[in-house]
Amino acid sequence: MKKKGKVLFITPVLPDANGGGREKRAHQWMTLLSEENTVELFLISPHPAAGGKAEKLVLRYRKWQRWVEWGKALLSFVVRPVKGAFVLFWMPLRPEHKEFLQRRFQDKTYDKILAFRLYTSDFALYVQQLTQTRLLELDLDDIESSTFEKIARVLFEGGRYKEAFQRYMSAVQFKLMEQERLPQCKRIYICSREDQRLVNERFPGAEVQVFPNRMFGVIQPLPKSTANKKVLFVGSLNHYPNEEAVTWFVQQVLRPLRRNDPDWVFQVVGYEASEQLQSFLRREKGVQFLGAIPSLEAAYAEAGMVVAPLHAGGGTKLKVIEAMWYGRPVIATSESVYGLELVPEVHYLPAETAEEHMQQCVKLATSPALYHRLVAQAGALVQEKFSYGAHAAPQIWVADKKTNTA
C-alpha cells in the first residue's frame, strides 16, 4: 500500500461545501488532498470567532496600528515593497505571530505546504522555514491585484472615493506581494485559463496550474418554475461589485420592465447587505429582498431565471455555476462568466447593456424551448467540468490528482 503524504493546508476560512466562494474552494482542496494524503488544516483569521473551536492564529490589531500599516502601504507607491505592509484588513506577519508559529510547528514535518490565497503566503513561507518543508504551493484562486483594480474602478464610478482609494492601494500592495512571493513557490494554482495566461506573462518561469472552482456532489436541476417573470440574484451583498450590480439592475432593467409589465419581480438573496442597500431594495416596487436564507434551493425553485449583471470582480463566479447546477437559465455580463469558457447562446444568454438585459429577460420568459435548451446544455457542462466528488468525470479528477498531489 502506498504511504500517504502529509500536507499542511494554511487557510483563512474553514472548508464548507455550502459556504461562500472561498469556503467552497477550500472544501474542494480538502476533498482532493485527503484522497492520498493526511491533511492538517491551520486557520489564520482576523476574526476571533472564525472557525469556532478550530485551532487558529488570530490576527489582532489596534486601531492606531491600522493607520501605521496604511502609511506603510502608501510608501509602496514610491518605493520597493515595504516589509509587512498592510492589505485592507489583513495583518502581515509580525514578531508575535512568529512566536506563535514557532510553538505550534516546532518538531513538525510535512511533505508539502499549500497556502490558500496570496495573503497567507508570508505565514506559509515562515512555516516552511520552520519545518524545512521541501514543497510550498500557493493557490491564488484569482489575481488579487487585478481584482482589486477592477473593484476600485467600480467604486470610483459609484462616487465612493475613499473606498476606491483603499482598494487601489491594496491592488498596488498585492501586485508587489505577487512579485515578491510567487517566485518562491514551487507551483501556483489559478481558477481559469485566462488568469493562467496572465500569470505566465508576468512570471515566465512560474509553474502555473489551472484548478477550476467547482460544486460538490451531483447537479440538482429543479422543475421549471411557473413564475416565468421572477428574476433571481444571489451573492454576498457586503461585496461592492454585487451591491453595484443589484442597484444597477433595479434602476436600469427592472423599472423599465415593470413599466411595460408589472408582473416582473426581482428577488435578491445575500447576506450582510448595508442598511442603505436594504432600505433601497425594500422601497422599490417589484423587489423581494430576502437577505440571508438558510437554504438557497427554495429561492432557485421559485425563480424563472437568474441574472449576474456584474461589472467587476475576480476569478470565476460560482454564482453562475450554482444557478446552472440548480437548473436555472442565466443572463450574464462578460465579467460574470469570465474564465468559465461558456459559449454565449448555448450555455447562457449574454447581456451588457440595460436594453440587452431587458431583451434577454423577455426572451427567456416567453420561450419555453429556449429555456429548456439552455438548462440542458448548461447542466451537462457543469456536471462534466464544474462538479467534484465520487461521481466526478474521471479524466478531470485524475488530471487534477496528477498535478495537485505530487
From TrEMBL:
One GO BP annotation of this record: lipopolysaccharide biosynthetic process
Gene3D superfamilies, per database record: Glycogen Phosphorylase B (3.40.50.2000)
Ribonucleoprotein is among the record's keywords: no
Keywords: Transferase
CDD domains to which the protein is assigned, alphabetical: GT4_PimA-like
GO terms assigned for molecular function: glycosyltransferase activity
Record-annotated membrane-spanning stretches: none
PANTHER family in the record: GLYCOSYLTRANSFERASE WBBK-RELATED
Protein name per UniProt: Glycosyltransferase
Native organism: Rufibacter immobilis
